[in-house]
Amino acid sequence: MRNILTFLILCLTASFQALGQSQPDKIFQLDKTSQDAYVDEIGETAITYFLPADTRRQNPQQVLKARVWKIVFANGDEEVINPLPAEPTMPAPVARPDRIFTTSNTIVEAKVLHIGQTTVEYRRLDGAADSPVFELPLEKVIRIELADGGVRSFTNSETSETEKRSTRKSDSTPTGPQQTTRKPSRMRESRPINAGSARSRTEDARLGLSAAFVGSYVYKEPYWQADSNGVGLRQGLGGSLTVQYKALKWLAIFLEGGYNQFLSNRTYLTPGNDTLYTAKYILRTMPVQLGAKIYLSGRVYLGLSGGMNYLITRFDSYSDYSLETKRFSPVGTAALGVEPRLGGLKLNIAVQYTYSTVMATSQYAASPAIHTPQFKLGIGF
Question: Pairing between strand 275-297 and 207-217?
């Protein structure tokens, strides 16, 4: 009997030893780290296991199921708890830009489109395919380094030794995709170059507002010009306000409103009793016209416009007699002018000819029309 009990104890001891030496399971987490363990239970929210060193199974461990990728059991079976997250996609490499070295110690990083005889055309890196194209005179360029490795150098007598040293120093700067994000300030420094003669093609396509002084002179009408037959109007002073849209490089559409006043004081002799008296004649014109400017060369333009003129004519004599007329009548203007720039402002210098039907009547003047050559001096943006 004693021998049988001894044999059973030996068998149980051997069984526990064999169990303690069996191959453990493997728990893989979502961060792809792994843990050798003996899985005891897979619950709703956690997995209970024992470490291999805990042969007596006295210290249970737990790991949240949300952190576990899969379990590979000792017998080779595999159970996926959570799928692995998708691998992040690598960002596309940034294309290397072309680089324009200027005489003002700036570097323009851009996409060079064309290198001509006198200018280089380029588009900014952050622009789309239809973004503005800029031009830069080659006299302001020292060197152009293309993205494909090509280099174009330009000889400029105005380049100082300081600028040459700055250029040599920039040659030692490593080039590559990272340079685009490190030098945004140099792109801003290049804007004054583009604001002058190298203006973009679409920069002029914008709204503008201007105000002008207008001086007028009456011409070719004896009813308005001759002292003996009419009221003697000769000069008129006024102004205008213009809203303009530059639709194309050679075409602008504008809406203009204005005000002009002509004034004449006359001394008359009463027939028979030789009595002198004074009469005053006032003509006020308020034209509103829609027109177009055709740019012939650079900023020289030919302007044509037409619209309606609100006229107020008034005659006052020495007595209580007075006559005032108010009416609308057609008006048209032809102009030849130039629009030079003064810093950020735009001047407008023009000579023009205005024709308007007046139909002003009194016992001293009656005229179907008035012809007025005019001089305009305006300023706007």
Answer: unpaired
Flag whether 294 is in a domain.
yes
Work out the pLDDT band at 311, boundaries 50, 70, 90. Answer: confident
Domain contains 220: yes
Q: Extract the tokens encoding 239.
A: 């102004």
Residue type, 35: Q
The answer on 36 and 163 residing in a single domain is no
Q: How many domains does the chain have?
A: 3
Residues sharing a CB contact under 8 Å with residue 188, sequence separation 6 or more, in sequence order: none
Query: Which of 337, 307, 326 shows the shortest CA–CA distance to 214?
Result: 337
Do 280 and 369 belong together in one domain?
A: yes
pTM score of the predicted model: 0.45
- CA-to-CA separations, 100 to 151, 170, 194, 203, in angstroms, rounded: 10, 11, 13, 21
Which residue type is seen at 102? T
Please check whether residues 340 and 303 belong to one and the same domain. Answer: yes
**What's the first-to-final CA gap in the chain, in angstroms?**
119
> Are residues 229 and 375 both part of a single domain?
yes
Is residue 1 in some structural domain?
A: no
pLDDT tens by residue, 281-301 = 778 899 999 999 999 988 899
Residue 257 contacts by C-beta under 8 Å, 6 or more apart in sequence?
240, 241, 286, 287, 288, 289
